[in-house]
Amino acid sequence: MKIKSHLPNTLTLMNLLSGVIGIIWVLNGELYAAAWFIILSAFFDFLDGFAARLLGVSGELGKQLDSLADLVSFGVLPGFVLFKLCQELSPDSLWPYFTLSVPLFSALRLAKFNLDTRQGDRFIGLPTPANALLISTLPYLMAEWVNLSRLFLNPWSFVILAGILSYLLVAELPLIALKFKNFSLRNNVFRYVLIGAGVGFMLGFGLAGIPMIIVIYILLSLIENSLKKA
C-alpha cells in the first residue's frame, strides 16, 4: 500500500530529474537535446497524473510536487534554451536576460492554475508543457526551414518571442484541452482537427513540426472561441 501511494510522486520526481538533466545539456551547449528531455518530462508528467487517478492516491503533496517539477521542466529549462539561443547572437549584451521572463511567467501560470477552478475542460492561457515544447524545438524548426530561421538573426527576435509567450502563459485566453466528455464529431471537431494536424506535422517534419502545431493549437482555439461567442 505504501509503495502504491508513492508511485505517482516518484514519477513526478522523474519529471523533475529529466528537466534538471535537460538544463545540464543546455549549459553544455547541446540545445537539440533539450527538446528530448522536455518530451521525457511531459511523458512522466502524464504518467504521474494517470497513476494517481488509477490508484486513487492523489493528494495535496502530489499537487504541489507536480507544480514544482513542472516549473523546472517546463519553465526553467525552456528559459535556458531561449537564453542560450539569444546569447549566441549577442554574447556581450544584456538582451539574453530579457528572455528569462519565460520561467517567471511560467511560475505565475502554474500558481494560477492551482487556484483556478475554471480549467476543468479548457485551459486558460497557454499550458507550460506546450510553451516548453515550442521553445525547445525552435532549433529543429530553424534547421528545417532555413528561410524561416532568418527571422531569428538578431537577439531582438528572441526577446520579442519571450514577451509574447510570457503573455500567452497568463492571458485570459480559453484554449482547447484534449479532454473528451464524449467522442462525437460535433462536440469535438476542433480537437480532432488539432490531433490530425499534429500527427501530420510530426510525420512530415518530426520535432521541427512541433512549433507549427502549437501555433495551430492557438489559432484553432481562437476560432472556436469566436464561434462560441457568435
User: Tally the helices: what do you get?
Assistant: 11
Number of beta-strand segments: 2
Instruction: Walk across the major sheet and give the strand order.
Output: 1-2
Overall residue-averaged pLDDT value: 90
| Structural class by SSE content | mainly alpha
Shape: globular
- The termini sit apart by 52 Å
SSE pattern: HHHHHEHHHHEHH
Strand content: under 5%
The low-confidence runs, each spanning 5 or more residues with pLDDT under 50, are none
Characterize the largest beta sheet: strand count, sense, and whether it forms a barrel: 2 strands, antiparallel
Helix content: over 70%
Q: Whole-number radius of gyration? A: 18 Å
Plain-language structure description:
The protein is an all-alpha fold. The radius of gyration is 18 Å and the shape is globular. It has eleven helices and two strands; from the N terminus they run αααααβααααβαα. It has a two-stranded antiparallel ribbon. The model has no long low-confidence stretch (mean pLDDT 90). α3 runs parallel beside α6 (128-136) and α3 (60-89) packs antiparallel against α9 (155-170).
